[in-house]
Design goal:
heterodimer; A: 134 residues; mainly alpha; two-stranded antiparallel sheet; 3 helices; 54% helix; flat; B: 137 residues; alpha+beta
């Protein structure tokens, strides 16, 4: 029973983790909107989520096959690959943060997060209904 | 919860932007200060921002921002002919600060907009976390 519940929530948990990781990247972009030579970063959410769901490791990650193996420094929990954004309008100080785009992505990511929480909530309500005795 | 790191990132930006606003206020206040503590006229100051990694050492997810240094504006000082001024040189010219008021106003608006953006980031993230806390209820 418990492993089935675990399996049911696993996908949502991965999506939530990815969304909160992405939220950090977008917050960094907004925070560094005036920093010279800062390059805006982001992840490909859909690609990363389908990779995590299929259980594949990110390309180029070191496998830890022994309990005493050390994780590679700078690796994030899901192994999501952080990419640089291609800029639309170049800035003379080398900064590639486009505030309109960042704000839109930030809003979209927050909505996505809330949507996942809502779906997860519904799943939990269904499970509760199934467990309830008549 | 990794979303807590968003607060650290946005807070670092708030600190940096308010420091920038502080420098703007100092420049505008001293736009006409022909003498300062070091003898010569006041020189306009500018902040230099730098991105720094934020989060736990194993998970370097985001980048915050800090003011690396406050530099003096190297542009030439303004010279005005006013022989009655006590700070006038032998030719009757007084050297005034190189503060460009228009630049400072633009800087001020830019700093305040960036500040607002980061406050919005914090509010949105707070709403997300509160939503998560109601999970399963």
């Amino acid at each position: 029973m418990m492993d089935k519940l675990d399996h049911l929530f696993q996908g949502h948990a991965a999506a939530l983790k990815l969304a909160s990781f992405r939220q950090q990247l977008l917050a960094s972009n907004i925070a560094n909107a005036d920093t010279p030579h800062y390059k805006a970063v982001d992840i490909d959410f859909a690609a990363e989520l389908s990779r995590v769901m299929s259980g594949r490791a990110a390309p180029g990650t070191l496998a830890t096959t022994h309990p005493r193996h050390l994780p590679a420094p700078g690796a994030n929990p899901l192994g999501a690959r952080v990419l640089y954004r291609t800029d639309v309008q170049g800035n003379i100080d080398g900064n590639t943060v486009d505030m309109d785009r960042e704000r839109a992505q930030f809003m979209e990511n927050a909505l996505r997060y809330e949507a996942i929480v809502r779906v997860l909530n519904t799943e939990i309500q269904h499970m509760k209904a199934a467990l309830r005795t008549q | 919860m990794s979303l807590f790191n968003v607060f650290n990132i946005a807070a670092s930006a708030l600190t940096a932007q308010s420091q920038r606003l502080n420098v703007v206020a100092s420049n505008l206040a001293n736009a006409e200060s022909a003498t300062s503590v070091n003898g010569g006229p006041y020189r306009a100051k500018q902040v230099v921002f730098q991105a720094i990694p934020m989060g736990t050492p194993s998970v370097t997810a985001g980048a915050g921002v800090v003011v690396r240094e406050v530099v003096d504006d190297p542009s030439p000082l303004r010279r005005v002919y006013d022989p009655r001024h006590p700070a006038a040189d032998k030719d009757g010219y007084v050297t005034y600060p190189n503060v460009n008021v228009v630049d400072e106003m633009v800087n001020m608006i830019s700093a305040s907009r960036s500040y607002q953006n980061n406050v919005d980031v914090m509010n949105t993230t707070k709403a997300m976390m509160l939503k998560l806390l109601t999970l399963g209820q």
